[in-house]
């Protein structure tokens, strides 16, 4: 029941004819709707440990012994042992608080009954520290926040966030693209690239991918179309499992299989043969390298990776002859 009420019947002159003080009302009272729910991380870089400022506008008063429950997908996904701290931001309410991770993904903030009731319509804010961002870019799913009485009964609730944060890829610690076996890259020849990367603080999943965007005329046939249609990955070092490769639209994609999660900050290197080098010799535009989830969502990225210098092919044109159409002296030909 919602509660017990007193009920009385009175005459027109105010005389009581019947009464009952034990009338019970049944049903559910829905919680109020919190508004202006905001999440502001100090850093939006994938995998970084940062602080989150959470704000919301109360629909109903917040008692001095109430609790605030905040569901952060980051705590659910990658912070199973979260032991950060929570502080009241900008004196948005008074008293002291305690905080724990009460269940997967939920930060439970309890008021310790030494402050005042906070009025309806007040915007309250808390800063949650020690939260590790998800280890890939993009959004993380649904957030929600609720307030509850000390007996666990809901006061207010919302799962509508006004500014869902979008996270950006982290930067690979390093990336190198060279010719295998310290050979020289020759214009127009088919040869082997050596690729080496060092991950950021984010791991590479068992089904993750490494993508390398080739600059300029890499993998272009002499006449038209694409080359690089017969690639092979060898000499994998620092990583278990296998890598299979494919080329499309200027991008080399390396797919992992038969592997385990590759740890953060670790180095990976391998050779890929069957690469057609550019026809023009000299310095070339730079490469870019990404690691991604199986669905292509970027984890880490690195732009501006210098590649090998392209030398001339090394073969001279032989048996050249020139025949003049009009061999007369002083005449154009």
Write the layout of secondary structure elements.
Layout: E1 3-10, E2 16-25, E3 32-33, E4 35-41, E5 49-57, E6 67-71, H1 73-78, E7 86-88, E8 97-103, E9 106-111, E10 123-132, E11 144-148, E12 154-158, E13 170-171, E14 174-179, E15 185-186, E16 190-198, E17 209-213, E18 232-237, E19 242-248, E20 251-257, E21 267-276, E22 287-292, E23 298-305, E24 310-311
Parallel strand pairs: 3-12, 13-23, 15-24
Antiparallel strand pairs: 1-2, 4-5, 5-10, 6-9, 6-11, 7-10, 8-9, 11-12, 14-16, 16-21, 17-20, 17-22, 18-21, 19-20, 22-23
**Total E-strand runs:** 24
- Which residues sit in consecutive blocks of at least 5 with pLDDT less than 50? none
Taken as a percent bin, the fraction of beta residues is: 35-45%
Q: N-to-C SSE series?
A: EEEEEEHEEEEEEEEEEEEEEEEEE
Shape: elongated
Instruction: Note the total helix count.
Output: 1
**Approximately how much helix is present in the residues?**
under 10%
CA radius of gyration is 33 Å
Sketch the major β-sheet: 6 strands, mixed
The spatial strand order of the largest sheet comes to 3-12-11-6-9-8
Average pLDDT confidence is 88
What structural class results from the helix and strand content?
Answer: mainly beta
C-alpha termini separation? 109 Å
């Amino acid at each position: 029941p919602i509660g017990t009420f007193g009920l009385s019947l009175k005459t027109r002159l105010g005389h009581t004819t019947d009464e009952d003080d034990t009338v019970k009302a049944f049903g559910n009272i829905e919680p109020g709707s919190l508004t202006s729910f905001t999440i502001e991380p100090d850093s939006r870089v994938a995998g970084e440990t940062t602080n989150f400022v959470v704000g919301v506008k109360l629909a109903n008063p917040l008692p001095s012994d109430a609790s605030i429950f905040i569901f952060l997908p980051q705590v659910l996904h990658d912070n199973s042992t979260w032991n950060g701290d929570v502080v009241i931001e900008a004196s948005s309410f008074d008293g002291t608080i305690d905080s724990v991770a009460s269940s997967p993904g939920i930060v439970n903030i309890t008021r310790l009954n030494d402050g005042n009731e906070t009025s309806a319509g007040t915007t309250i804010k808390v800063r949650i520290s020690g939260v590790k961002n998800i280890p890939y870019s993009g959004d993380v799913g649904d957030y929600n926040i609720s307030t509850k009485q000390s007996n666990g009964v809901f006061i207010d609730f919302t799962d509508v966030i006004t500014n869902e944060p979008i996270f950006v890829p982290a930067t690979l610690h390093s990336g190198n693209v060279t010719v295998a076996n310290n050979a020289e890259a020759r214009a127009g020849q088919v040869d082997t690239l050596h690729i080496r990367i060092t991950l950021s603080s984010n791991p590479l999943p068992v089904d993750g991918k490494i993508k390398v965007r080739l600059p300029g005329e890499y993998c272009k046939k002499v006449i038209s179309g694409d080359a690089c249609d017969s690639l092979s990955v060898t000499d994998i070092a620092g990583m278990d499992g296998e890598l299979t490769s494919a080329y499309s639209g200027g991008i080399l994609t390396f797919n992992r299989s038969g592997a385990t999660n590759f740890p953060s900050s670790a180095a990976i290197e391998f050779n890929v043969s069957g690469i057609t080098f550019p026809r023009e010799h000299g310095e070339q535009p730079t490469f870019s390298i990404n690691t991604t989830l199986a669905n292509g969502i970027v984890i880490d990225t690195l732009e501006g990776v210098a590649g090998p210098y392209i030398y001339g092919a090394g073969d001279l044109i032989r048996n050249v002859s020139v025949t003049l159409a009009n061999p007369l002296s002083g005449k154009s030909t």
